[in-house]
């Protein structure tokens, strides 16, 4: 671990997003303009507890990030850790934080802290939250207590595990929640406090090639099977179904799902945002027992977007159906 005068070395990667978004005089709307060095310069006192290494990795809205960007980022973080960096902070837009943090959770195998943060209020507004979130993220990344916890998300003085966290509000600074576990910790008087230590999920190798496309379909009242029937024809390598409740779909969708599950992995998640997929409670057509018996794979506690991340990376590493089932059985 590299230290400078007993300060751990923390690499800060900027990707863009609200925290980095400003505008020019006479223009409407903010866009990502600031890099890591400029963001760090706006937070006084960081070098009191960490030696900082800024890296302007991307400069974009988080909705424009893709698997290729995140695989490259995971590889770069891993290389920095091998060179002695103590922790990494990733600064990005909050729209996809719950997905990007989970990608890093799966692909960065080192025990060093990886902390993802951002902002809900851009720098042109009164009371932007970006500087406080960045300071808190660096504090956590520099903490030896954060080692071995996997990828973390730090906003609003709360510390969340990547596997649980989700954005639950369009504009509130308290937008991030972790169901069903809650935050694993918080910051008080500039100090990280950890109340829960989660066991790391089994990691995955960095994909050597493109990540295959996986579709995400949310069940709604009266939803028909037309989209399900087109998944294979559109070239998707897998499907995640966000079901009603504990794992239920309209009964008239069952035949199409069964046919599809015989050709590509179909994972069953819940649209509720919290709780495990049931496996042995209901027995009606379209229930979780019915769907699992027809070949669908329960997602455990993962929500739809995170189940899609896991399935995508498994397929990118050449996993067959049996391996996909085995991995999801451990969730």
Automatic annotation (TrEMBL):
GO terms for molecular function: asparaginase activity. Residues 10-194 form the L-asparaginase N-terminal domain. One of its GO terms (biological process) is asparagine metabolic process. Residues 214-328 form the Asparaginase/glutaminase C-terminal domain. The active site is at residue 18. Substrate binds at residues 62, 94-95. Keywords: Hydrolase. Transmembrane segments: none annotated. It holds the Pfam family Asparaginase_C. SMART domains: Asparaginase (SM00870). InterPro entries: AsnASE_II (IPR004550), Asp/glu_Ase-like_sf (IPR036152), Asparaginase/glutaminase-like (IPR006034), Asparaginase_C (IPR040919), L-asparaginase_C (IPR027473), L-asparaginase_N (IPR027474), L-asparaginase_N_sf (IPR037152). SUPFAM superfamilies: Glutaminase/Asparaginase. Belongs to the asparaginase 1 family. PANTHER family: 60 KDA LYSOPHOSPHOLIPASE (PTHR11707:SF28), L-ASPARAGINASE (PTHR11707). This is Asparaginase. It comes from Actinomadura decatromicini.
């Amino acid at each position: 671990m590299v230290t400078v005068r007993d300060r751990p070395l923390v690499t800060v990667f900027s990707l863009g997003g609200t925290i980095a978004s400003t505008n020019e005089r006479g223009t409407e709307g903010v866009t990502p303009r600031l890099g890591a060095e400029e963001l760090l310069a706006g937070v006084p006192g960081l070098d009191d507890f960490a030696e900082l290494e800024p890296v302007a990795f991307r400069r974009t809205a988080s909705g424009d990030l893709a698997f290729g960007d995140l695989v490259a980022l995971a590889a770069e973080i891993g290389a920095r850790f091998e060179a002695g960096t103590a922790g990494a902070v990733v600064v990005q837009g909050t729209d996809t934080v719950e997905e990007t943090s989970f990608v890093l959770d799966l692909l960065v195998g080192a025990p060093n802290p990886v902390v993802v943060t951002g902002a809900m209020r851009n720098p042109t507004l009164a009371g932007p939250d970006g500087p406080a979130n960045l300071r808190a993220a660096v504090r956590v990344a520099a903490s030896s207590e954060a080692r071995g916890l996997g990828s973390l998300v730090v906003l609003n003085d709360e510390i969340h595990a990547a596997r649980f966290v989700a954005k639950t509000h369009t504009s509130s600074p308290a937008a991030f929640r972790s169901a069903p576990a809650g935050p694993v910790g918080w910051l008080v008087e500039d100090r990280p406090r950890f109340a829960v230590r989660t066991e790391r999920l089994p990691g995955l190798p960095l994909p050597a090639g493109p990540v295959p496309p996986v579709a995400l379909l949310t069940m709604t009242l009266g939803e028909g099977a037309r989209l399900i029937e087109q998944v294979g024809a559109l070239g998707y390598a897998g499907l995640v179904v966000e079901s009603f409740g504990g794992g239920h779909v309209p009964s008239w969708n069952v035949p199409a799902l069964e046919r599809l599950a015989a050709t590509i992995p179909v994972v069953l998640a819940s649209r509720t945002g919290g709780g495990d997929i049931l496996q042995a409670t209901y027995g009606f057509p379209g229930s979780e027992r019915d769907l699992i018996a027809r070949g669908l794979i329960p997602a455990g506690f993962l929500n739809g977007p995170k189940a899609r991340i896991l399935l995508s990376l498994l397929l990118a590493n050449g996993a067959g159906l049996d391996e996909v089932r085995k991995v999801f059985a451990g969730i």
